Amino acid sequence: MNLDYSPILDESGKPAGVMAIVIETTDRMRADAALRHSEEQLRLATEYADVGLWDIDLVNDIVYWPPRVNVMFGLAAGTRRSR
N- to C-terminal Cα distance for the chain? Predict the structure, then answer.
């Protein structure tokens, strides 16, 4: 659970109560764990199958290209790629 507390003050600035916001996070935590597991499976599969993946952000014109893909194409691991 995610809990957030804030004081409620009266006209004179004295505490008159507390506002509590409680958010149940079980589904979010399960989704985060499933995502981490899936990402790990993808990482292991690409590593052991010697497969390279990259992603292109067409809106911002950015290529996300991991260093191991550079090596697969005979480039130095730190070489920056542009689209």
Answer: 43
Q: Among all chains, which residue has been given the structure tokens 């995502």?
A: 35
* CA–CA distance, 37 with 40 (Å, rounded to integer): 5
- Predicted model pTM: 0.55
Q: Which two tokens stand for residue 52?
A: 């390279």
On whether the CB atoms of residues 54 and 65 are closer than 8 A, the answer is yes
Q: What is d(CA 59, CA 48) in angstroms, rounded to the nearest whole number?
A: 32
| pLDDT tens for each residue of 50-74 | 888 888 889 988 888 888 888 888 8
State the maximum Cα–Cα separation within the chain, in Å, rounded to a whole number.
Answer: 71
